[in-house]
Amino acid sequence: MDLGELVSAIRIVEMTAKSRPAAIRSLVQAANWEDEGIASDVVLTAIEEREAAAQTLVSSDFALPHAFIDWDGDFRVVMGRSRQGVDYGVPTGQKVQLIVLLVIGRKLQQTHVEVLAALAELLKQPEFREQLIDAKDTRAIDVLLLAKAGLQPDQRRQRAPSIPRLTQMLVKQAMQLVEAVGAQALLLAVDRLEGVPWELLANWKGRLLLVTTEHSEDFEIEREDTHVFDGLHATLSRLDRSNLGLLLAASQGLLNEKHSVVCVTGADGRRLDSISITKPESHFRAMLSEKNRRGVDVVRPAVMLRILSLAVEIAAEGREAHPVGTMFVVGDARNVLRHAQQLVLNPFHGYSKNLRNALDPSLAETMKEYALIDGAFVIQGDGTVLSAGTYLMPKSAPPGLPHGLGARHQTAAAITAHTLAMAITVSQSTGTVTVFRNGTTVFTLERAAATKW
């Protein structure tokens, strides 16, 4: 095996465990076996059985525990460095400071000898192991390993990520489900395009919608009728990941309201674990259909989606280590301002339109900062931000609103009932993003993951 390929596959962690069992457990957990649908205890049992048969202590400072498991992947390597040392049962009492865990899929046992030989070649010199042990941090260890393999950091070889078994099974079932129910598309919410099981989808002829959290410019898609949307959905619930994907696809005219879509999502974008069948109608008709685009100040779909994305970012990130609540009112700006009063000096007053358009990515951080100000943003349908810190005074909230809504949400409902605008709110207490139009809630996205604040 080529050393460059091996080094590029090694994951490096700092160990704090003091005993052999605890150290091995920490390395197993660092390999994220749950992504493969494999319990960590299964891997631990296989390693302990191998260790019981013959302890894999290579030298007084280096151990190489390894085992085979029932797994369709090839191999995983995790290198742990311990500054204080691990009691590995060395007869001399010396503590081991470098432990390399190797786990190989049982179907590829022929890889076993190749990988072990490459690891032995990489770490055979005591002087080099001492450099790894004394390295400043894991990044420095990585640089040393790359140099040993004759590579620079920017020459790291990218390994295709293994696709979790559960993900492959669900996507296979989802393709069959699309045909069975006559769905118009299959939607996958993933973190990266590399995490899509492309081999399974290669011969499938249906429409594929991919919603990703990480933009992949260098990834070339050869499959036809495949559409990619970058959306910050990592902090959303499973259901709302698919809802956001439907909205993004609908904004480009890829979906109709007559047929369903099969959606595959997960708690994160690496491992998919849920299938749902839904129709796009209830998720975007009120925001994108022509009959709601009345008045002169028409809300462009791109503007609505940009503000919605910005609201999700604010809900996930907060500001200055605190949760933030805010409101955006988009469209029919002339009538909205008739019900408005400035709480503070308008920070957007006096700037040219091209410097205060919400579609400009450079304005995002400025708007996040002004979200700390009480009041709402008022935005024209073309994306021009007219004001921030604006106090809205609609006549009354429409009847039929759910109980328990705060002042911000009641105001959002009321302003959309008395004007043709759309309002997007971020709840400070829950992080829920809600879209109001015509006095009612038409779309919600609930925060599910841990936030930065």
What does this structure look like?
- The longest helix has 17 residues, at 165-181.
- The radius of gyration is 27 Å and the shape is elongated.
- Helix 8 links the parallel strand 7 (185-190) and strand 8.
- The protein is an alpha/beta fold.
- Helix 1 packs antiparallel against helix 6 (138-148).
- The protein has helices spanning 3-9, 20-30, 40-53, 110-123, 126-134, 138-148, 165-181, 198-201, 238-251, 281-288, 301-317, 333-337, 364-370, 407-418; strands spanning 10-14, 57-59, 62-63, 66-69, 75-86, 96-105, 185-190, 208-212, 226-230, 261-265, 274-278, 326-330, 340-342, 376-379, 385-392, 422-426, 433-437, 440-445.
- It has 14 helices and 18 strands.
- Strands 13-15-14-12-16-17-18 form a seven-stranded mixed sheet, with helices on both faces. Strands 1, 2, 3, 4, 5 and 6 form a six-stranded mixed sheet that branches. It has a five-stranded mixed sheet with strand order 9-8-7-10-11, sandwiched between helices.
- It has three domains: 3-155, Mannitol-specific EII, Chain A (3-Layer(aba) Sandwich); 165-287, Pyruvate kinase, C-terminal domain (Pyruvate Kinase, Chain: A, domain 1); 292-445, YojJ-like (1, CATH 3.40.1700.10.
- The model has no long low-confidence stretch (mean pLDDT 84).
Write the layout of secondary structure elements.
Blueprint: H1 3-9, E1 10-14, H2 20-30, H3 40-53, E2 57-59, E3 62-63, E4 66-69, E5 75-86, E6 96-105, H4 110-123, H5 126-134, H6 138-148, H7 165-181, E7 185-190, H8 198-201, E8 208-212, E9 226-230, H9 238-251, E10 261-265, E11 274-278, H10 281-288, H11 301-317, E12 326-330, H12 333-337, E13 340-342, H13 364-370, E14 376-379, E15 385-392, H14 407-418, E16 422-426, E17 433-437, E18 440-445
Parallel strand pairs: 1-5, 3-6, 4-6, 7-8, 7-10, 8-9, 12-14
Antiparallel strand pairs: 2-3, 5-6, 10-11, 12-16, 13-15, 14-15, 16-17, 17-18
Helix pairs in contact: 1-6
